[in-house]
Protein: Protein phosphatase
Organism: Amycolatopsis endophytica
Amino acid sequence: MHRLTHGPVWGTATARGPRSVNADATAAYTDPSTGEVVFALADGVGDEQSAARAARIAVSTAVQVPASQGPAAALAAAQRAVRASSGGGDCVLVVASPFDGGYRVSWVGDVRAYAWNGDSLRQLTKDHTLAEYFRDRGHTPAPTMEHLVTTSVRTARLEEVGHAEAVGPAGLLLTSDGVHKVLTRSAMAELLRVPPQGAQALVDAALAAGGHDNATALMAEFAPSLPDLTTTPLPTASPA
């Protein structure tokens, strides 16, 4: 659990699940001169060490970009770093930074960001998947399409990056698909309504519900009740 002097408190949790490698990663960095913070969560593409490495590179690079430059600049920096890395790994990524009155978010792939008002969650991101592509065109996708991403850190063009802004929420939730494709949004909100539930409760619930993927969550909140949040700190993911 971490706190800014005049900013959000946040906590993270992750679990490898039944996979052989934990290819999720999350990071946060507070600029000591400004107090501004940047959050990032990545999900490596595949169950391999190269995917985990790409996710770690992406989040560690993204959070070093000043919040004043915005999450789009942070994601662009992460892309340059992943493309310059050896090994060919790839990942999907969501980057968020709080500002006076809310949060700004940029993403590629099927990681998600939700605004939290203390009672319910509102999804800010839209999955970049083959399933969403067909839904947007009035077709019913096959279940396997839910896991086929159409953008990633290594491959996305500038115009394909998603952007969103939430004004006025008490908090922000970032999740990998091992959480939000197992738990419904209402189930996640129900867990978060019960103090001191947070990131760890979501990860535990996803695995208990039969999740077959890495599960990772980052919860940030301005609400004064959050210091009681029980989570597992996670600077970056590590292989099994």
